[in-house]
Design a protein that fits this description.
The complex is a heterodimer of chains A (116) and B (112). Chain A is mainly β. Chain A contains no helices and eleven strands. In chain A, strands 2, 4, 5, 6, 9, 10 and 11 form a seven-stranded mixed beta sheet that branches. In chain A, strands 1-3-8-7 form a four-stranded antiparallel beta sheet, with no helix packed on it. Chain A is globular, with a radius of gyration of 13 Å. Helix content of chain B is 0%, strand content 58%. By secondary structure, chain B is mostly beta strands. In chain B, a hairpin with a 2-residue loop joins strand 6 and strand 7. In chain B, strands 2, 4, 5, 9, 10 and 11 form a six-stranded mixed beta sheet that branches. Chain B has a five-stranded antiparallel beta sheet with strand order 1-3-8-7-6, with no helix packed on it. Chain B starts with a strand and ends with a strand. The radius of gyration of chain B is 13 Å and the shape is globular. Classes of the chains: A mainly beta (116), B mainly beta (112). At the A-B interface, strand 5, strand 9 and strand 10 of A face strand 4, strand 5 and strand 10 of B.
Amino acid sequence: SAVISQKPSRDICQRGTSLTIQCQVDSQVTMMFWYRQQPGQSLTLIATANQGSEATYESGFVIDKFPISRPNLTFSTLTVSNMSPEDSSIYLCSAPQGADLNNEQFFGPGTRLTVL
Amino acid sequence: GENVEQHPSTLSVQEGDSAVIKCTYSDSASNYFPWYKQELGKRPQLIIDIRSNVGEKKDQRIAVTLNKTAKHFSLHITETQPEDSAVYFCAARGGSNYKLTFGKGTLLTVNP
């Protein structure tokens, strides 16, 4: 299975500031996905990060709030901008293994964000 | 878009009993149905999956069944153990996009 790491694992931030979360995969993958998981809830897709093109955002999520970079096939960042307490959540990156988008999808360990 | 419903939201069983979690999906183009187990504070872990060309798949104590006509799929855990206690999520993926849509999760508690 693909090995996915994230940094930081957790952070406590002040409202109005921004945090950039990094996601590293141990092999090249075609797509990377960013999810949000609020306490006790399911996983909600924020956006799909494609290498060489703009990220595709889901309804309710916008680029100004969650800018995403995908500079190569093993790395992506998600920034949570102008944070408010409502952004407190776990943010997870995910990717199907390898180049085949039909492969199994694995998750990073998540970044636990608390906004004060 | 796809909508995945999952039931029950909580399930408590005695050790050794079986547990069944059911999901329905709305998009007939969906063709891949994974199940994830998430322990407290951990990442979702893929435990089993099934594709639309198969009706059933087993892996030791875990099995998944798929009914494409009715658009539902189920997770079956036999001989449950306390370490099976976790939140289980079903998901569906397919069509022209490769996004996973998740159910709301089932908190399974296995009592010793």
